[in-house]
Specification:
Elements: H1 7-23, H2 31-56, H3 64-81, H4 86-111, H5 114-133, H6 135-138, E1 151-152, E2 155-156, H7 159-181, H8 184-194, H9 196-201, H10 206-232, H11 242-255, H12 262-272, H13 284-298, H14 302-320, E3 342-351, E4 354-364, E5 369-373, H15 380-388, E6 395-400, E7 403-404, H16 410-415, E8 418-420, H17 433-438, H18 449-453, H19 457-477, H20 492-505, E9 510-514, H21 522-537, E10 541-545, H22 549-555, E11 558-563, E12 566-571, H23 573-578, H24 580-588, E13 592-593, E14 596-597, H25 598-603
Parallel strand pairs: 5-10, 5-11, 8-9, 9-10
Antiparallel strand pairs: 1-2, 3-4, 3-6, 6-7, 11-12, 13-14
The structure holds adenosine-5'-triphosphate.
GO molecular function: ATP binding; ATP hydrolysis activity; branched-chain amino acid transmembrane transporter activity
Domain ABC transporter: 342-589
Organism: Actinomadura livida
C-alpha cells in the first residue's frame, strides 16, 4: 500500500505530466503521436477497470469490453439522434456502465470464484449478437456510421480539443482511482483479497464491497467506450471481441494489475509494441496470448512491480526498517469499552445427522476472561463460529449485552462489537502494521468512498482519528517500532498481537480468541498474558478457545468445559482442574483436555 512518493509529491508530478500532455498539440507534436496517446489513454481507462477488480479486489471479471461497448453505443446513439455533447455522452456512458455492471455482476459475485470470470466473459461474447438484434438502430454487424463530432457546451470540438478533454478526464479518473486504493477502501479490498472470512470479521459486507468495486470499475470502461465512439466517427461490433479482452488482460498483467499507473504502462506497451503493427495482425490473438503468458510467468505484478522493487532496494529498506524496540509503554492503555456480557442460551447445531452442539448455555461475564475447553470434536469451534455469525444456530439464542446477535450475518455481528483472532493469523499482504490495525475500524467507523476519492474533510478527519487510535493501540501492544513494517512478514507471535490490536481498533466489546497461544514460545506467551490482562482491565469481554490448560489457569477467570456438544462443567480454573467429572472423563480419554495433560498443568 505504501506509495513510492508522498501524496503531495505524486499530485505535483501528475499535474506536470498532464500539463505536458495537454500542451503537446500546441507545441507542434506530430498528429500521429497525438492519436497514439489518445489510443493509449482509451485503453488505459479500460485496463484500470480490470486492475481495480483483479489486482485490488482479487476478482477476475472480464466484462470490460461489454461495458466499453455499452458506453460506445450509448454515446453513438445519443450523438446521432439527440446531442453530441461530450459531457452528456460521458454521463450516459457511466450510467450504462453501472447498469450493465450491476446486472452482470450480481449473479457472478454472489457465487464468486470462476463463476464471475465465466459470466462476465459470456457477456462479452454476446456483444455482437445484441448489436445485431438492434441492427436498425445500432448498425448491426455492418457497423454504425455518421457519428458526429463531439461538442462541449454547444461548440464543436476540434481533434486537439477532443484530445485535451480525454487527457483531463483520464487524469481525473486516475487521480480518483489512486485516492481510493490509497485509502481505507483500498485496505478493505486487500482484506477481502486475503480472505472473505477476515473481511466479515472486521465488519465489512463482502458482497457489498465486491459489488461496489465491480460497479466502480465500470466507470472508466464506459468512458473509454464513449471516447472510442467519437474517435473515428464509426463503430463496429467486430472489434469488440475476445481480442480486445486479451489485449486488456495482457496490458494489466504486463503493467502490473496491482498498480494504478501500471494500467497506463501496460496500455502504452500494447499500443506501441511491435505486436500492434499490421504485419502481426493476422496472428494477433496468438501473439497477445503469448505476451500474456510470458508476462504472467516472469513478472510479479508486472513492470510496476519491478519499479517498486528497484525503488525499495535503493530507498525503501531504510524507511521500513523497524525502529529500536520499545517495551509496551505504561502511558498507552487500550481504550476503555463498556463491558458487555455474552449470554449463550440452549444453543443447538447439527451438521446433517451429527449433533455438534446440544443445548449449550453459559454466560461470559463482562470484562472477564472465559476459557472454552474440551476434547477434539466437542464443539468449541462450532460455538465460536455461531457467535461470530459464520454459522446459524438451529436452536437457542446468543446475546451480547442486551442485544440478540444470533442469526445476524458475520459482518453485522462484528459491527455489534464482536472481534476475533484466528488460529492461523490472517494478516493481509500489502499492508503495514499500522495499516493492518486500522483495518479493524472498517466496519465500525465507516467513511463514504466519495470522501476518500475526492479527499473531502471526512477523509482527513478519519485519517487523523485512525492515526491517534493506532498510535495508542500499537503503544499498548509494544508494536510502535514496527508501525511501517509490512505486517505479513512478521513472526507468528507479533502477528497474533497484531490481530488483537485490529480487534481492539474496531472497539470490540467481546473478543473471541481461537487458540491464540498455539505455536508461541514462552516469552511470546508471557507478552500475550500481559496484553490480555490489559484488555480485561479496559472492560473487554474475552472468550478464548485454548488447548493449553496451563495458560488457561494463568489468565482465565472462568472455564467452561464442553464434551460431545454439551457443557460438562464450569467454574474457576482451580475447580475445573479438580472437577470429578472433568478428571474422570479426561483421565478415561488419556488425561488430556484437548491435548494438554491436566496432570502436567497441575504440577506447573
Ligand atoms: N462444517 C462442518 N460440517 C460438518 N461437520 C462439522 C462441521 N464443523 C464441525 N463439524 C462437526 O461438529 C463436531 C464439533 O466440531 P468442532 O470443530 O466444533 O469441535 P472442536 O471442539 O472445535 O474440535 P477441535 O478441538 O479439534 O478444533 C465434530 O463432530 C465435527 O466433525
Amino acid at each position: 500500500m505504501k506509495s513510492i512518493l508522498t501524496g503531495r509529491q505524486l499530485g505535483l508530478v501528475w499535474i506536470a505530466v498532464v500539463g505536458v500532455l495537454v500542451a503537446l498539440p500546441w507545441v507542434g507534436a506530430d498528429p500521429a503521436n497525438i492519436r497514439l496517446i489518445t489510443l493509449i489513454a482509451i485503453l488505459a481507462l479500460s485496463v484500470s477497470a480490470l486492475n481495480l477488480t483483479l489486482g485490488y479486489a482479487g476478482e477476475l471479471a472480464l466484462n470490460q469490453v461489454a461495458i466499453y461497448a455499452a458506453g460506445a453505443y450509448v454515446s453513438a446513439y445519443t450523438a446521432i439522434n439527440h446531442s453530441a455533447d461530450l459531457l452528456l455522452c460521458l454521463a450516459l456512458s457511466v450510467v450504462a456502465a453501472l447498469a450493465i455492471g450491476l446486472l452482470t455482476g450480481a449473479p457472478g459475485l454472489r457465487l464468486g470464484g470462476w463463476t464471475l470470470a465465466i459470466t462476465s466473459f459470456f457477456v462479452v461474447l454476446l456483444v455482437p449478437s445484441v448489436v445485431n438484434v438492434f441492427g436498425e438502430t445500432l448498425g448491426g454487424f455492418a457497423g454504425l456510421n455518421g457519428i458526429p463530432l463531439p461538442s462541449l457546451f454547444g461548440r464543436e470540438l476540434s481533434t486537439e480539443e477532443f484530445y485535451v478533454v480525454l487527457i483531463i478526464v483520464a487524469a481525473l479518473w486516475f487521480a480518483v482511482f489512486r485516492n481510493i486504493v490509497v485509502s481505507r477502501h483500498g485496505s478493505a479490498l486487500l482484506v477481502l483479497k486475503e480472505s472473505p472470512v477476515l473481511a466479515a470479521a472486521v465488519g465489512t459486507s463482502v458482497y457489498r464491497t465486491k459489488m461496489v468495486t465491480y460497479a466502480l470499475s465500470g466507470i472508466p470502461a464506459g468512458m473509454a467506450g464513449c471516447f472510442a465512439a467519437f474517435l473515428d466517427s464509426f463503430l463496429s461490433p467486430v472489434s469488440l471481441n475476445i481480442n480486445l479482452v486479451i489485449v486488456i488482460l495482457a496490458a494489466s498483467i504486463l503493467g502490473g494489475s496491482m498498480s494504478v499507473y501500471g494500467a497506463i504502462v501496460g496500455a502504452a506497451i500494447m499500443e506501441i509494441g511491435p505486436l500492434r503493427t499490421s504485419a502481426f495482425d493476422q496472428y494477433a490473438t496468438i501473439a497477445y496470448g503469448v505476451f500474456l503468458v510470458i508476462g504472467g510467468l516472469l513478472l510479479r505484478n508486472g513492470i510496476a512491480g519491478i519499479a517498486h522493487r528497484l525503488w525499495d532496494a535503493r530507498f525503501g529498506a531504510r524507511r521500513r526498517r523497524p525502529a529500536a524496540e520499545e517495551p509496551p509503554a505504561a502511558e498507552f492503555r487500550f481504550p476503555e469499552v463498556e463491558g458487555r456480557a455474552l449470554r449463550i442460551s440452549k444453543v443447538g447445531k447439527s451438521f446433517g445427522g451429527n449433533r455438534a452442539l446440544d443445548g449449550v448455555g453459559f454466560v461470559a461475564e463482562a470484562g472477564r476472561i472465559t476459557a472454552l475447553v474440551g476434547p477434539n470434536g466437542s464443539g468449541k469451534t462450532t460455538l465460536m463460529n455461531l457467535v461470530s455469525g459464520y454459522y446459524r444456530a438451529d436452536q437457542g439464542t446468543i446475546e451480547l449485552g442486551d442485544r440478540p446477535i444470533s442469526g445476524l450475518p458475520a459482518y453485522r455481528v462484528a459491527r455489534c462489537g464482536v472481534g476475533r483472532t484466528f488460529q492461523t493469523p490472517m494478516v493481509p499482504h500489502g499492508l503495514t502494521v499500522a495499516e493492518t490495525i486500522t483495518t479493524g475500524r472498517l466496519g465500525s467507523h465507516p467513511v463514504p468512498m466519495i470522501a476518500s476519492a475526492l479527499r473531502l474533510p471526512a477523509h482527513w478527519r478519519a485519517l487523523a482519528e485512525e492515526a491517534e487510535s493506532g498510535r495508542r493501540i500499537m503503544g499498548a501492544l509494544g508494536l510502535s517500532h514496527l508501525a511501517g513494517v509490512p505486517a505479513a512478514d512478521l513472526a507468528l507471535g507479533t502477528r497474533r498481537m497484531l490481530e488483537l490490536g485490529r480487534a481492539v481498533a474496531g472497539g470490540s466489546a467481546l473478543i473471541l480468541l481461537d487458540e491464540v497461544a498455539s505455536g508461541l514460545d514462552e516469552s511470546d506467551i508471557q507478552d500475550l498474558v500481559a496484553v490480555l490482562g490489559k484488555l480485561r482491565d479496559a472492560g473487554v469481554t474475552i472468550v478464548l478457545v485454548e488447548h493449553n490448560f496451563a495458560l488457561v489457569r494463568a489468565i482465565a477467570d472462568h472455564v467452561v468445559v464442553l464434551a460431545e456438544g454439551r457443557v460438562l462443567a464450569e467454574g474457576d480454573p482451580e475447580e475445573i482442574a479438580t472437577h470429578p467429572d472433568v478428571v474422570s472423563t479426561y483421565l478415561g480419554a488419556g488425561g488430556e483436555i484437548s491435548g494438554t495433560r491436566l496432570a502436567t498443568a497441575e504440577s506447573e
